[in-house]
Amino acid sequence: AQSVTQLDSHVSVSEGTPVLLRCNYSSSYSPSLFWYVQHPNKGLQLLLKYTSAATLVKGINGFEAEFKKSETSFHLTKPSAHMSDAAEYFCVVTNNNAGNMLTFGGGTRLMVKP
Amino acid sequence: ETGVTQTPRHLVMGMTNKKSLKCEQHLGHNAMYWYKQSAKKPLELMFVYNFKEQTENNSVPSRFSPECPNSSHLFLHLHTLQPEDSALYLCASSQDWAGSWEQYFGPGTRLTVT
């Protein structure tokens, strides 16, 4: 079994300040983890993925995430927020030992203030 | 055209209508998926096809009927829907069903059942 918990349903930051979106997971097997972003009225876009290689993963648009097995966390960060980062972000886990069944977190809505 | 496309983008239908959603992927992938995204609920996987064969049916009511004529096209046939079926329906594809391949999503069809 696997599950994902996104600890904040809403996060608000000022433009130019750091972004932290928190994600905790549970998985019976070695997991792969993803972050997706969804802008209003759009589909989901892959930001980055972790698949048991380097624990610090760099993605698009300056985002990165660190896999911490001891803490079962995969938090998403960005040093400086842009207005265009305002969107909903989903943390996702899949089980490397089974089919490609993605389990989605509930999402975090990021708001960026000017 | 590249990526994953979905038509129509918006659909309003009555409970007695029959309609179909179409998804096409131009990525050469072998697996395709239907998801339902409702307000305030995590994404729900509905169906999975791998090499045109259905591998998962996630306890979806029979009023939703998928069809996958080839690896590039996926349909979702709708009939006698309920108002609670109103949601954003997302199609996705991945290289394969096995392992941890990332999924690429289309823009979705916003369905409203009246």
In words, what does this structure look like?
- The complex is a heterodimer of chains A (114) and B (114).
- The mean pLDDT of chain A is 92.
- Chain A is an all-beta fold and 114 residues long.
- With 114 residues, chain B is mostly beta strands.
- In chain B, the strands form two sheets. In chain B, strands 2, 4, 5, 6, 9, 10 and 11 form a seven-stranded mixed sheet that branches. In chain B, strands 1-3-8-7 form a four-stranded antiparallel sheet, with no helix packed on it.
- The N and C termini of chain B lie far apart (33 Å).
List the helices and strands and how they pair.
The complex is a heterodimer of chains A (114) and B (114).
Chain A (H helix, E strand, L loop, with lengths): L1 E5 L3 E5 L4 E3 L1 E5 L3 E8 L5 E7 L5 E3 L5 E5 L4 E6 L8 E9 L7 E2 L3 E6 L1
Parallel strand pairs in A: 2-12
Antiparallel strand pairs in A: 1-4, 3-9, 5-6, 5-10, 7-8, 8-9, 10-11, 10-12
Chain B lengths: L3 E4 L2 E4 L4 E8 L5 E7 L6 E7 L2 E5 L6 E7 L2 E7 L7 E8 L9 E2 L3 E5 L1
Parallel strand pairs in B: 2-11
Antiparallel strand pairs in B: 1-3, 3-8, 4-5, 4-9, 5-6, 7-8, 9-10, 9-11
Question: Main attributes?
Answer:
heterodimer, A: 114 residues, six-stranded mixed β-sheet, 12 strands, B: 114 residues, mainly beta, seven-stranded mixed β-sheet, 0% helix, globular
Strand content range of chain B: over 45%
Shape of chain B: globular
Compressed to H and E, one letter per element, the order of chain A equals EEEEEEEEEEEE
Tell how many strands the DSSP assignment of chain A holds: 12
Largest sheet of chain A: 6 strands, mixed
Can you give the helix content of chain B as a percent range? under 10%
Average pLDDT score of chain A: 92
Average of the residue pLDDT scores of chain B = 91
The low-confidence parts of chain A are: none
